[in-house]
Amino acid sequence: MIVVDDVHKHFGGFRAVDGATLEIRKGSITGLVGPNGAGKTTLFNVVAGVLPPTSGRVVMDGEDITGLPPHALFSKGLLRTFQIAHEFSSMTVRENLMMVPADQSGETLWNAWFGRGRIAQEERALAAKADEVLDFLTISHLADERAGNLSGGQKKLLELGRTMMVDAKIVFLDEVGAGVNRTLLNTIGDAILRLNRERGYTFCMIEHDMDFIGRLCDPVIVMAEGHVLAQGTIDEIKANEQVIEAYLGTGLKNKVAEPAV
């Protein structure tokens, strides 16, 4: 679905992404892991149109999307979330969801004056869809809560809900588990799995919680120093000597080597 072909992103003399090549299969939940500074978030930003690449190509469903801006990729069904959630804090959770779909009739002055009936009809439909999303995510009880009052994990669920308002094809999740308690993290994981299995969403996610990655992701791609170091199942990654040396540490190596008791 997504092919990243020899992508470089340089900031002066610093090579944040240095020849990354990888593929995200349609229907997969692909994990992207690696030490801090490996280039993961920069690569996300290049794929999602936030940053232009220095060189290389990004292809989606056979179409070259290299350098397209985020709003153009949004219309193609490619969305990304951020490590720090971005919400309209003074609006309710339901209103935050209703803001997502583009080209709403109420966005034009003409319709605001002469198309009030159509606007009201659209808003009812959007509110109904927002309530369906909230029910799917098991946070219907927060529909009328101001988004700024949500916990970190609830805000991550809200961001996931935004992707459901436009039926995204592929979603890039940047550290969805950061700062989230284990109970809410399990809820987020359940939602991701259901979206993948029941609605055909493709995901690529940056995450440092290897248990969370292991539960959700196949394959797992490891980046180091701006390029892809290894790819495989979570068990293959944990047993890979290069990965252990670059990222996971000798503690895990020793743990893996211990016999089961």
TrEMBL record:
Recorded superkingdom: Bacteria
InterPro entries in alphabetical order: AAA+_ATPase, ABC_AA/LPS_Transport, ABC_transporter-like_ATP-bd, ABC_transporter-like_CS, BCA_ABC_TP_C, P-loop_NTPase
Domain ABC transporter: 2-250
Coiled-coil boundaries: none
Pfam families according to UniProt: ABC_tran, BCA_ABC_TP_C
Gene Ontology terms: cellular component: plasma membrane
GO terms, molecular function: ATP binding; ATP hydrolysis activity
Keywords: ATP-binding, Nucleotide-binding, Transport
PANTHER family for the chain: CONSERVED COMPONENT OF ABC TRANSPORTER FOR NATURAL AMINO ACIDS, CONSERVED COMPONENT OF ABC TRANSPORTER FOR NATURAL AMINO ACIDS-RELATED
Name of the protein in question: ABC transporter ATP-binding protein
Organism: Mesobaculum littorinae
